[in-house]
DNA sequence: TTCGGCCGTCAAGAACGCGTCAAAGGTGAT
DNA sequence: ATCACCTTTGACGCGTTCTTGACGGCCGAA
């Protein structure tokens, strides 16, 4: 979850920002003045800062410089002042964007998206472990004792449905629908065929599966 | 020297921007419409793009998406339209900043500084090694045993998408979308054609690729 | 015990996808 | 206008994958 620090001394604005950001999936922390802001930033290490200039205790540039001393998180400045000199000073102090009040909340969110997009995409892919086998769904990669294992497209789809419902029983009907399409209801022989292939490739002992289990008459289950 | 591409169909504005940017030490290229802009961008590989919306030949979002297909350079949008919807559309299409005309030249320069500041020092050596071949995505340069290898624009785009997802499988659909545009879904023959060309130019044994791999029925993968 | 349903396995032809070659459009440069 | 280069298309052989059918084993029900 992307963490945003909102710094504003006006409670209504801080509250409005918090609600809107939270509604769009951000984790929001708020601070009401510069000192709080710097302390909160050190504590939560935000991915982005929305900073209102005109705080009661510090000058805006001071806050920006305080943050920039150790953080590279984008800083989006809010301000009632529209004068170019103010904007230039804030941007050159280290801010990434400058929005004048009153502002459109949709535009602000778009600017937040633009700012997080740049620094956002860190490459970490979630891997699932199945005994001696690791499955990386994002990279579409399966390794068995370090060796690469190749799966066919149909095998991938079937495995993905099961892995996305860990521990849960998935009915044959649902598996058929999600892999072969809504017109396939009774072709359980397909499932038998491909489950056998998956077990051969993934299970230590394909005849005695430990993770890809059959629930007779119901469906299949992936046990982590 | 930081290279800036200025795209504007109004000669006065383009000229004013060129002069001001050049006076502050930037290397400036200009383009008067969308098609020229994309061609110029492919030729000079700018570090930043200043883009006027409302070009005569293309929609602004198209130009942004055309650039974003292969470039991560910051895009600073200029526009006469102050409506929030316009701003949101441009920012979500991939722009980094949005300034409404008339604008203060000092503020624009500050925003240019802010945009280049983050992408400047942060960009680590983007040289990728593929066996006997080195690829420099930023400089658009490929060397094979020291010899320079020429790639066509389409080959670059395709290679770049793959290299930016090292180890990850990229579906043929995504490749087609990012290289040819969202209307291309089923033209997998394009991929076959260009992957073959890339392998001829980059792989030691094009018939037995080691780094540019095919995942039958799914897509392609770059293995470092 | 016998029977029927369900599952795992095997084996085949059909269908599909990929690499490759060749050639026709397009576009900018000379 | 000609030329060179790049892109777009079409077609073919081949290997892999999918589909389909059949058989035997296991288990619960009659």
UniProtKB/TrEMBL annotation, chains A, B:
Location of 4-aspartylphosphate modifications: 52
Major location category of this protein: cytoplasm
Keyword NAD: no
Residue ranges constituting the Response regulatory domain according to the UniProt record: 3-116
A single GO BP: positive regulation of DNA-templated transcription
PROSITE patterns per record: OMPR_PHOB (PS51755), RESPONSE_REGULATORY (PS50110)
Cellular localization per UniProt: Cytoplasm
Every OmpR/PhoB-type domain range: 125-224
Record keywords, A-Z: Cytoplasm, DNA-binding, Phosphoprotein, Transcription, Transcription regulation, Two-component regulatory system
UniProt DNA-binding residue ranges: 125-224
GO terms, molecular function: cis-regulatory region sequence-specific DNA binding; identical protein binding; phosphorelay response regulator activity
One GO term describing the cellular component: protein-DNA complex
UniProt xrefs under Gene3D superfamilies: 3.40.50.2300, 6.10.250.690, Winged helix-like DNA-binding domain superfamily/Winged helix DNA-binding domain
A matching Pfam family: Response_reg
Its biological purpose: Member of the two-component regulatory system KdpD/KdpE involved in the regulation of the kdp operon. Upon phosphorylation by KdpD, functions as a transcription regulator by direct binding to promoter regions of target genes to positively regulate their expression.
Name of the featured protein: Transcriptional regulatory protein KdpE
Biological source species: Glycomyces terrestris
Upper lineage: Bacteria, Bacillati, Actinomycetota, Actinomycetes, Glycomycetales
